[in-house]
Amino acid sequence: MGVYDTRDISDDGARKVLRAAMEKSREINCKMNIAVVDAGTNLKTFFRMEGAWLGSTDISIKKAKTARYFDMPTGEIGKLSQPGGPLYNIEHSNGGLISFPGGVPLKDTNGNIVGAIGVSGSSVENDHAVAEAGAQALLS
Predict the structure, then answer these.
(1) How many helices (H) and strands (E) does the chain have?
(2) Closest CA to 117 of 96, 135, 99
(3) CB under 8 Å to 16, separation ≥6 — which residues?
(4) Which helix or strand (DSSP H or E) is residue 33 part of?
């Protein structure tokens, strides 16, 4: 039997991702809910900016989990889950998924997926931009 090796985001890494996402959110003047999950989809860190929508709290966490469950951005899952698509109705699995942009897997400098970030509170384009900024911070 082989050894199962799981890489996970560190505490410092999660904070770095969160700070970068918060900075991008402020730069584009959006009030966001930002969730970071570890490789096992456990909530690692979360921040709700003052004035961010309450309903987006759950959405941000589900976006992060969805991105990690399938190791792809949530917007890509959305494309595959349209009527007639290969993943149609997938959003009803796993206790509820989010299949629109704003969730992005987090990779370490070696390309290993170590968690995911989910962002909600504005347009899906802004949500995705803030999530991407967080994800890119982990690579620097």
Answers:
(1) 4, 4
(2) 135
(3) 137, 138
(4) strand 33-38
Mean pLDDT of the chain: 93
In DSSP terms, 106 is beta-bridged to 115
Domains of the chain: 11-137 (3.30.450.150)
Distance between CA atoms of residues 54 and 120, nearest Å: 10
Using one digit for the tens of pLDDT, what is the confidence trace for 14-62? 999 999 999 999 999 999 999 999 999 999 999 999 999 999 999 999 9
Q: Which two tokens stand for residue 105?
A: 């897997």
Q: SS3 of 23, please?
A: helix
Structure tokens at 131: 């999530």
Degrees, nearest 5: CA angle 50-95-63: 40
The stretch 57-73 carries a mean pLDDT of 97
Neighbouring-strand partners of residue 47: 34
User: In which band, very low, low, confident or very high, does the pLDDT at 137 lie, cut at 50, 70 and 90?
Assistant: very high
Q: Over range 97-110, report the average pLDDT.
A: 94
